[in-house]
Amino acid sequence: MNLNEYVGHIHLHTTYSDGVATIEEVVRIANRAGLDFIIPTDHNVLIKGLDGWYENTLLLMGEEVHDQQRQPESSHYLALNLKEDVAPYAQDPQAVINAVNAQGGFGFLAHPIEYDAPPFVEEPNLSWRDWQVSGYTGLELWNYMSEFKNRVPNKAAAILFCYFPRLVMLGPHIETLAKWDELLQDKKTVVIGGSDAHGNTYRLGPLSRVVQPYDYLFRTVNTHILSQEVFDGQLAHDKRVVYDALREGRCFVAYDLLGDTRGFRFTATSGDAGRRTSRAIMGQEIALQGEVSLEVHSPRRADIRLLRDGRIVARRSGKSLRWTTSQKGVYRVEAYRPFLLKKRGWVFTNPIYVR
Ligand SMILES: [Zn+2]
Ligand SMILES: [Zn+2]
């Protein structure tokens, strides 16, 4: 299968809400970072008329919706492919999801599981607290800023981490991975990754520093989409290429700072010898005919783990892994790479559903 891969950055903030960079600056930085597309998601506002190509980056505007009166603040929803602002529905998460779907949009639960950060961090726990909802596309599996603030144990570490953020990142929270596996037993659930970039300056006593500027974050947790279609420069077409891939889960979450993940693939083939074979890539279903062969190819050496229904069934260090099975289930791949004495999350693929 000949696939085109596009690297995108989803979930960031601009001066349209609480980010420090204007949309023009953000687009310029995204171009410099080599991103194929970006989807800013400002809080409770949809900016219309900006979608389009800006040099080599496709800009698509989304919205992050939540009830700003609610205490504790919680349940942020990333809404994509919107025609109209859905903030008027913010008080009711299910109403938000319904309003998004009714206009042909789709969405993801943002930073669904967070820990309580120490008080000096001054960042609330913004977990999703309305798990009874339905109709959403999936989860933001890995949110860079969410992980960062959740892994700061004390002030000394906070100062160190602000100067050496690469010490911090380990991967999505294990609780989020477990929740995803639980949801997958019920229904298809797509995951994406993002940074939640704001470009804010943090102060700690006399120290003040822009922790995590946009140009740094755009090289961290990205979402890579796979499509048989090629961008042709036409907004309507290219928008559909991005949104179809995200909606269907033809994408993987990648921490590109640990090594460019472009070229990472997870595929399946099914069919007995002599019979018609079928193929699938991440995000797709495949019918079990005799056996299914699952293959992982990585552009760099990694600790590659294949999971079925949330449990590791095969593991290999290297650039590939091949596994044959006659068992139905939800198969997904995690890859880790070592950096500064720790194994760190690098790639998390959407699943192949063997039915
Ligand atoms: Zn949020
Ligand atoms: Zn956000």
Using DSSP, what is the number of strands? 22
Into which percent range does the helicity of residues fall?
Answer: 10-25%
Ions, cofactors, ligands: which are bound? Answer: zinc ion
The count of helical stretches stands at 7
Strand content: 35-45%
Query: Which fold does the CATH topology of the largest domain refer to?
Result: TIM Barrel
How many domains comprise the coordinates?
2
Textual characterization of the structure:
With 355 residues, the chain is α/β, with parallel strands linked by helices. It has two domains: 4-258, Metal-dependent hydrolases (TIM Barrel, Alpha-Beta Barrel), CATH 3.20.20.140; 265-354, Immunoglobulin-like, CATH 2.60.40. Helices cover 18% and strands 37% of the residues. The chain has seven helices and 22 strands. The chain has helices spanning 23-32, 93-102, 144-150, 155-163, 174-184, 214-217, 235-248, and strands spanning 4-12, 37-39, 41-43, 52-54, 57-59, 62-65, 77-80, 106-109, 138-143, 190-197, 201-204, 207-210, 221-227, 251-255, 265-270, 278-281, 285-286, 292-308, 311-325, 329-339, 342-349, 352-354. It has a 20-stranded mixed β-sheet that branches. It is globular and about 70 Å long. The mean pLDDT is 94.
Defining traits:
355 residues, alpha/beta, TIM Barrel, Immunoglobulin-like, 2 domains, 20-stranded mixed β-sheet, two-stranded antiparallel sheet, 7 helices, 18% helix, 37% strand, binds zinc ion
